[in-house]
Amino acid sequence: MSQASELAALEAAVPKLMGPVVIANALNAMLYGLCFLQFLHYYSMGKRDSLPNQAMVCWTFAVDTTHTAASVWMLWYYLVQNFANAPVIGTLPWPYLSLPIFIILASLPIQQFFAWRIKQLSGSWIVFFALSILSLVSSGVGFANSAVAFTTPSVQDFNSQAHLVDIWLTLSMVCDGFLAGLLFYYLQKSRTGFKRTDSIITRIIHSCVESTALNSIFCMADLIVFNLYTESNYNLLVAMPMGRVYTITLLGMLNSRLAMREELEGELNDTSHAMQPSRIDRRFNISGNHRSTEVKVDVVDERSDVDAYLRSGSRESMKAPTVSDPSYVDHKQQSIIA
């Protein structure tokens, strides 16, 4: 094939190669704006959150900022720096090749976070280590994919490494799917039968399960588009914003949890204030105007009725808190939200 025919083929490929790059950058910038708003909202109310959670939020936001800047530079490289330079369309700059790395830097800590939440709900270290190892293996394959791509930075050579992309996206999709399913299962088991507690659990299910399920759907969509359109960059429409989706789901879940925690604490404070004497009572000393009534109560020593556990040490007779105990319900709510 002559050089003129090669240039004609490259020019004909501009819509399916450069068009997705432009649209993907626009989608990525829009989602980055949502990440920025969620980040500001988190730090306006997240000072009471744990330091590891705050560090993870800062890390993912830094990764998103770096990746968005690199994506904008890639757009500049193609459309401004190499304007009317058709052969550059067949090359892949470093932001394109490092796309799996940026996605993994955001997804790995978030997957580990949700795996730890499942461990807290289930109490099973086996489940935690299984999910953690699956996430690490998926991330390792993604890093290997980028490492191989950097050695051959061209469109044809990159497509020849499609099997690594398929393995990485499949493992990531399975990991996120397991996270969503196990979160739903263990949160459903946490229901107590009380309307107030169950409504809180329902809200947590919506924020946690929908977040991880959305991540799994994005991985599936990227896998399908990448294999259906091998001679184009249409997969960038899903792959480039994927890291932002992970961050948005994390921040949305954390912000929802903090809001529910403040709502619960506000209800508890309102209850405690209602039990205190009113301002009128304190000003006019209404309670002090009444003379105390002396009441005599005959107390009968019933030590013989002490639970047998205290005497024999048997665990069978030890009384656990019942589900109807209000203190137990409040503890259950806060342990789920924490």
Automatic annotation (TrEMBL):
Residues 172-257 form the DUF6534 domain. Keywords: Membrane, Transmembrane, Transmembrane helix. The chain crosses the membrane at residues 20-43, 55-79, 99-118, 125-147, 167-187. The keyword Transmembrane helix applies. Residues 328-338 have a biased composition (Basic and acidic residues). Signal peptide: none annotated. Residues 311-338 are annotated as: Disordered. This is DUF6534 domain-containing protein.
